[in-house]
Design goal:
By secondary structure, the chain is α/β, with parallel strands linked by helices. It is built from seven helices and twelve strands. It has a three-stranded mixed beta sheet with strand order 1-2-3, with helices on both faces. Strands 4-5-6 form a three-stranded mixed beta sheet, with helices on both faces. A three-stranded mixed beta sheet has the order 7-8-9, with no helix packed on it. It starts with about 25 loop residues before the first helix and ends in a 6-residue tail after the last helix.
């Protein structure tokens, strides 16, 4: 995670960003700390990436890379405003025991990649259509040695995979079907017939931008309806207020890069 010490909305690169509405920096930082403390209280180790001036979206740490089995596929951002974030993430992984691969193709890390280690022997779901190039999916498969299923996103409001789909545990997902092309909807229905299905209200509440440890599902407080859906599926919802960070087009998952050693 990376604290939003420099968080502002000074440009618009997704439909949720409105440069005419000022950000409350103190509230954004307070909400970020609440999420970090919530994850710590649930027993998870949280590593903190130092924020850099001039990179207001660095708080969305999930976009900086994608890790599987100690291997890291780095990010290459589509928009120049975020390009330098990739370097900060590269330095973080260089300080550990990770095997890091610089990408040739545009991709935005966990924003467009999800991993289910218990599904089909270990499956990567990958989104494209707005940010990540489809060629990055093949590149990630070569780097990470796991099969990649490409899914086409068609609604600009859900520009990253992690705004339209989430892993609930090692084998199960939740998703909003209409965010995907008809063919991708058929693929998801075939692969995950027991998925928790979200509706548009859930998706617009960023309810699918969640983090789950297989037991606890951490969602924002706007996502109460989705909280009840995951509870009915056997998980425990944990709600955290992240209204200020939604101004930049992200919620719980965008703020958390999951490390898979």
């Amino acid at each position: 995670m990376c604290p939003p010490e420099h968080f502002t909305v000074e440009y618009a690169i997704n439909p949720w960003m409105d440069t005419t509405v000022p950000v409350d920096p103190a509230l954004a930082l307070k909400q970020w700390h609440l999420l970090r403390d919530t994850l710590s209280d649930l027993g998870h180790a949280v590593h903190v990436l130092d924020p850099a001036p001039g990179l207001p979206d660095m708080v969305y740490a999930a976009n900086g890379a994608f890790s599987v089995d100690g291997k890291v596929y780095g990010a290459r951002f589509r928009h120049p405003q975020r390009a330098a974030e990739a370097d900060a993430h590269r330095l973080f992984y260089a300080g550990g025991s990770w095997t890091y691969a610089d990408p040739l193709h545009i991709n935005e890390g966990e924003g467009d990649f999800a991993y289910l280690p218990g599904a089909y022997g270990g499956l990567i779901l990958a989104g494209y259509g707005f940010r990540t190039d489809p060629a990055a999916h093949a590149e990630a498969q070569e780097v990470l040695g796991r099969p990649v299923v490409s899914l086409r996103l068609v609604d600009p409001a859900f520009y990253h995979l992690d705004t339209a789909l989430a892993a609930l545990d090692d084998r199960h997902i939740t998703y909003y079907p209409e965010a995907f092309s008809p063919a991708s909807q058929r693929v998801l229905a075939q692969l995950f017939p027991d998925a928790v299905i979200a509706d548009r209200a859930d998706a617009e509440a960023f309810a699918l931008n969640l983090v789950s440890d297989g037991h606890h599902v951490v969602l924002n407080t706007e996502a109460m309806a989705m909280g009840e859906k995951v509870r009915a599926a056997g998980y425990t919802p944990v709600h955290v207020e992240l209204s200020e960070l939604k101004r930049g087009g992200g919620s719980v998952k965008c703020v958390v890069a999951e490390l898979r050693p």
